[in-house]
Structures are given as C-alpha cells and as structure tokens.
C-alpha cells in the first residue's frame, strides 16, 4: 500500500476531538511512509490532516476542481496539487491515486464520497479497504443503518465487512493495512 485517500470535513466541527484525531491521523499516515491523497483544501479537517502529514515529513497530494472554490481555500504547501475540471473528475482521480480510503467526520460531501466508494466496493469495482474514523461515535448511525439494510434484505450480510469502523487512528490504520475483503457475493437476492 502506498497511498490513503482521506475524506474529511471542510469545517473542523464543534468538538475538539475531531480536530485532534484528524491531526493524529495525518501524522500517523506520514509515519507509516504512506502518502495522503485528499481534496486539496487548507481549511477544516481537510487542512488539519494535510498539515499534520506535511509537518511529519509526509507526502500530500491534493485534488481540487478549478474555479469551484475560492483561491484562498487551496492549500499551497502540498507535495502535489492536481487541478481538475469538476467534482466528478476530482473523485475519479482521488480514487485512481488511492490504495485505501478513510473518512474522518464531515458533512454531505464527505458522506457522498464515502458512500460512493463503499458502493463501488459492493459492486466489485475495487477491493480497497474503506475505514471510518468513528470519533466520539460520529459514524455509529451509519453502522446502525448498514446493519438495518442487511437485516431488511437490501444488502448482503457479508457486505457489512466492506467498511472498517474504528475509534482510534492507530488501530484504524493497522486494520486498513491488514484488510482482507469479504468474499464477493451476488448483491441481487432475486438472481440467486
């Protein structure tokens, strides 16, 4: 594994633990000799994880759509910055560059990116690990929703293993590095 894509909020959130865990994750990625791929912003949890990785001597690759965000949001101290035409190109390039995905707490953009890569995993488009840094139980409603979807027959029980939930960055990185994808099953129950 060479690179981890981190999805993260463009705000820091209301609890100091969100920011603390983002910084811890950035340092840890760098200390593991892994490169960070992320959305290219200098603000919010996005900026904190990038700054921490850079401060620890890591390589950080940002991917930012041209003309979508104000210039003052773009992180100018990155190892590499890729400017792309739109959000679809951004997500495609981030995914292409990544060997794994981790989501920090965030809002709609973070959730949209997360659900896309989990869906791709379910469809067999990739077999990369997807981890959620569950700071203060932030992602427990999603864990509950996944279990409910499986129990209700809208996804296979084996697909619960497509996502790693962990509260501490060090344990999450360890699980991501040692991830074994669950056996691929037919997602369509009527076609069995």
UniProtKB/TrEMBL annotation:
InterPro entries xref list: LOG, LOG_fam
UniProt keyword list: Cytokinin biosynthesis, Hydrolase
Pfam family, one: Lysine_decarbox
Source organism superkingdom: Bacteria
Keyword hit for Hydrolase: yes
Top-tier EC class: hydrolase
EC number: 3.2.2.n1
Entry similarity comment: Belongs to the LOG family.
Protein name, UniProt field: Cytokinin riboside 5'-monophosphate phosphoribohydrolase
């Amino acid at each position: 594994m060479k690179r981890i894509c981190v999805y993260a909020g463009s705000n820091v959130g209301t609890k100091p633990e969100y920011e603390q865990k983002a910084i811890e994750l950035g340092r840890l990625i760098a200390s593991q000799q892994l490169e960070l791929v992320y959305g290219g912003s200098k603000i919010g949890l996005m900026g904190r994880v990038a700054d921490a990785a850079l401060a620890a001597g890591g390589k950080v690759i940002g991917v930012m759509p041209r003309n979508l965000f104000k210039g003052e949001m773009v992180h100018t101290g990155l190892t590499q910055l890729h400017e792309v035409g739109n959000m679809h190109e951004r997500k495609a390039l981030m995914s292409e560059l990544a060997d794994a995905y981790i989501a920090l707490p965030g809002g709609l953009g973070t959730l949209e990116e997360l659900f896309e890569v989990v869906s791709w995993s379910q469809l067999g488009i990739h077999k990369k690990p997807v981890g959620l840094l569950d700071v203060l139980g932030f992602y427990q409603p999603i864990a509950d929703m996944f279990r409910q979807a499986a129990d209700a027959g809208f996804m296979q029980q084996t697909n619960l293993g497509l996502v790693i939930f962990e509260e501490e960055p060090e344990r999450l990185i360890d699980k991501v590095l040692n991830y074994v994808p669950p056996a691929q099953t037919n997602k369509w129950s009527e076609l069995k």
